[in-house]
Structure formats: structure tokens, C-alpha cells
């Protein structure tokens, strides 16, 4: 009887270790196409907006989240609104395409996980259907590419102007505090 319990505990331990090794064995993003549309004239690129339905699962099949019971999710590629692995898997897809992305933990929630739903170092699997694809307009491209650079240049300029203003204000105050010397006139 004791040996049977020991064997069961040993088997449970080995199974847990093997499951953990399987999850850790996924080191890179794997994207499979499940459904390909008949025509694909436009593929997604950074800056494009996708409307997607998804189902995210742990590697053991447990569903962690799905959009199937709500409205589709809008994802603007490059804005980091979803985990990195999912965003990377959405580059180069077509409207109407369905993919399966196996995402390693370092491209998902990492060592910390997302308690209590997602344990640390968990690889994830997402099935994603691309409902709509909207390419960025030239105006959006300019705003996304140029505006950050302009802002980056404006920050030091504004700081310099504020510093100059404060310097001049401090200099003006220090000069007004000085009392003019009285000139003594000699009477003869």
C-alpha cells in the first residue's frame, strides 16, 4: 500500500516536471496559418489597425481570455496594446486570415506571469481571426514617424527657453536689489 502511494506521488512529480519543461521548451514565436483568404491584396504592417477576435490559452488548453463573447479588439500595430508575441504574429497577415500563434513566455507575461490567471514563465497559444485591416494613411504615417522626433527636439528647446527666462528674471532681480551709491558733493 505504501509503495503504491509513493509510486503515485513519483508519477505526479515527473508529470509536473515534464509539463513545466514543455512550457519552457518554447523559446521562439511560432505562427501557423489556419485559414487563408482566397485573395490577399494587402498585408498588415506597423502602424496599421486590425480588428481581431482571439482566444488565448495556456499550453494545457485552459482558456485565459477570449473576445468571442464581446466586440472585436482593435490593435494598432506598433502601439504595444497587446503582448509583444501577439503583436509580432499580426505583422504580415490579411483580412479574413486565421492564425495560431505559440508565444514563449518572454514575449508574453515573462517570469511574473499575470496572477492568478497566468502563471510565471507560461507559454501561451492564441488563435486569432483578422476581421478587418485598415492601413495607416499618409497623415497617420507622418504623425507616427515625424511627431515623436519633433517632440524629442522640442523638449530640450523648451527647457532651454525656460532656463533662459529664469536666468534673465534672476539677473534682473539681483540688479534691482543693489542700491545706487550716493554721490557726495563737495561744498566749497
Separate helix tally: 4
- Residue windows where pLDDT falls under 50 for at least 5 positions: 17-24
The outline comes out as elongated
**Mean of all residue-level pLDDT scores:** 85
Radius of gyration: 31 Å
In sequence order, what are the helices and strands, one letter per element?
HEEEEHEEHH
Give the N-to-C terminal Cα separation: 129 Å
Extended strand count: 6
- Class computed from helices, strands and strand pairing: alpha+beta
> How is the biggest beta sheet arranged?
6 strands, antiparallel
| Beta fraction | 15-25%
Proportion of residues in helical segments: 25-40%
Features:
single chain, alpha+beta, 4 helices, 6 strands, 188 residues
Textual characterization of the structure:
This protein is 37% helix and 22% strand. The protein has helices spanning 2-25, 84-89, 138-145, 147-177, and strands spanning 30-35, 49-58, 63-66, 73-76, 98-103, 124-134. Strands 1, 2, 3, 4, 5 and 6 form a 6-stranded antiparallel sheet that branches. It is elongated. The relative contact order is 0.15.
